[in-house]
Amino acid sequence: MNPEYNSAEMMTVTAARALENGMTCFVGIGLPSEAANLARLTHAPNVVLIYESGTLQTKPEVLPLSIGDGELCESALTTVSVPEMFRYWLQGGHVSVGFLGTAQVDRFANLNTTLIGDYISPKVRLPGGGGAPEIATNAGEVFVTLKHSKRTFVKDVDFITTLGFGRDGKSRDGVPNIGKGPTRVISDLCVMKPDPDTKELTVTSLHPGVSKQDVIEATGWDVRFVSGLETTSAPSAHELMILRDLKERTARHHAGESVGEKS
Amino acid sequence: MAEFLSLHDAVSNYVKDGITLAMEGFTHLIPFAAGHEIIRQERRDLTLIRMTPDLIYDQLIGAGCASKVIFSWGGNPGVGSLHRLRDALENGWPRKIEILEHSHAAMACAYEAGAAGLPLAILRGYVGSDLPKVNNQIKFIECPFTGERLAAVPSVRPDVSIVHAQKADRQGNVLVQGIIGVQKEAMLAAKACIVTVEEIVDDLGVGPNACVIPGWAVAAIAVAERGAHPSYAYGYYPRDNRFYKEWDAIARDREAFTRWLDANVLNTEGAQQ
């Protein structure tokens, strides 16, 4: 009844559980995609997954390496152009939740995927915004998932690529036609939610075996815990089986295909 | 009416030093063969536009073809960084490049506005993002009807766009299938558009709502078999994910990159004359 699992599996399973059956989810590549497909294969068979490459209501057999893998298109209800995806489906208000990964998140849930350091001469240049800036404001709400460390959970991000609640927690206030923003952040240690008043990310649930001290040491701000702090339920044997199957056939699929003529 | 040219001639006729060039294909149908031909012809000072620079622009940047890149997501999908882009930005190798950075939604809208002949695109975007602070081409306007504050960006109007497609018929009508990205918008936004195709067929064999671009809207068509490799062409060949992973090590190191370029781009036959 108490199967063995690792912290990455704990994170993915917890992230998957955040999705409810029937939600329409705009899925980011990587961890969000893994979690969203696990949800679809377990408790949420009718979750609608859409990817920014234009694939609507897709049901991939294996996880895509890129946002535009053929698998996403072949298993989709239909594939639309990228302008249609962003304009009609996202901006038009058809997405209930955006599921995003990020390089960094700060205490007000702002996301940085642009750079570390200064814009003109960056210490580390990251890929940039992609779809996230508008997913985060035009989707009904946003889930964020990333691994916990002092480098990833920082007090203030160097660059706000994608709005959480701004530098003061108030940047969404009074803005018309804007979503709720990040409603939960799922890491390999815990779940955080924005404080209803200040919007500061606050720990609401610790994963089994994780202490408050573990989270404090891995977080770049003076992190707070809600009263009535919960313990996340451990992954079930069923969830683990489905997740491991999915990852195993994904690994087999991506290892198997190469033409290699230019390598 | 589209002219049927060799890839060499299509590039040499249309892609001149200093032009603004868009090469599109959203993960799918990326026109790599055309990119390699541009590298072989040693084009310089190009302003390169592309939502996801991908390996194709990493190669063009590393080969010294670009002076400016306009983009919205500059990574190696599922793998990591574009090391040639980073080396150019962080160290100016092989030359300094300028960047202008957007979000996907803004670039998609900007292509669409370009195709529609408009000077600007309007979107509900960039709310609370720092991108407008570092890109002076992102402005905000007030809706004249509701007063809502909306983002505005200039439309994309490239001198030349290059896309890859599955096939064209003998009249030069082009079929794009699968993930169509911003292919059509990029084609129609440009002053001239080059399409590379897997094959020329007698009949495209499609129904009424297929994504077909008429030959009279295309400047030149060149056959480039496997012209999107290592990306993929739906119905022809899969994405070479292993190469995308291998690229990380090749691109990380200037010498390894230069060797790869010599062996795989510069010293190969490439386009059929």
Structural descriptors:
heterodimer, A: 263 residues, alpha/beta, Glutaconate Coenzyme A-transferase, eight-stranded mixed sheet, globular, disordered C terminus, B: 273 residues, ten-stranded mixed sheet, three-stranded antiparallel sheet, 9 helices
Describe the structure.
The complex is a heterodimer of chains A (263) and B (273). Chain A is of the alpha/beta class and 263 residues long. Chain A has a single domain (7-256), classed as Glutaconate Coenzyme A-transferase, CATH 3.40.1080.10. Chain A contains 7 helices and 15 strands. Chain A has helices at residues 7-18, 31-41, 70-74, 82-91, 132-138, 212-217, 237-256, and strands spanning 24-27, 48-50, 55-58, 76-79, 97-100, 104-106, 111-112, 115-117, 122-125, 141-145, 153-154, 182-186, 190-194, 201-206, 224-231. In chain A, the strands form 4 sheets. An 8-stranded mixed β-sheet of chain A has the order 2-1-5-10-12-13-14-15, sandwiched between helices. In chain A, strands 7-6-11 form a 3-stranded mixed β-sheet, with no helix packed on it. In chain A, strands 3-4 form a two-stranded antiparallel ribbon. In chain A, β1 (24-27), α2 (31-41) and β2 (48-50) form a beta-alpha-beta unit. Mean pLDDT of chain A is 94; it is low at 258-263. Chain B is an alpha/beta fold and 273 residues long. Chain B folds into 2 domains: 3-102 and 156-264, 3-Layer(aba) Sandwich (Glutaconate Coenzyme A-transferase); 105-154, no CATH class. Chain B is built from 9 helices and 15 strands. Chain B has helices spanning 7-14, 32-40, 54-62, 83-91, 104-115, 131-134, 183-189, 241-252, 254-266; strands at 3-4, 20-23, 46-49, 66-71, 75-76, 80-81, 98-101, 120-123, 139-142, 149-154, 160-169, 174-176, 192-201, 211-213, 220-223. In chain B, α3 links the parallel β3 and β4. The mean pLDDT of chain B is 96. Classes of the chains: A alpha/beta (263), B alpha/beta (273). Chains A and B meet through α3, α4 and α5 of A and α4, α5, α7 and α8 of B.
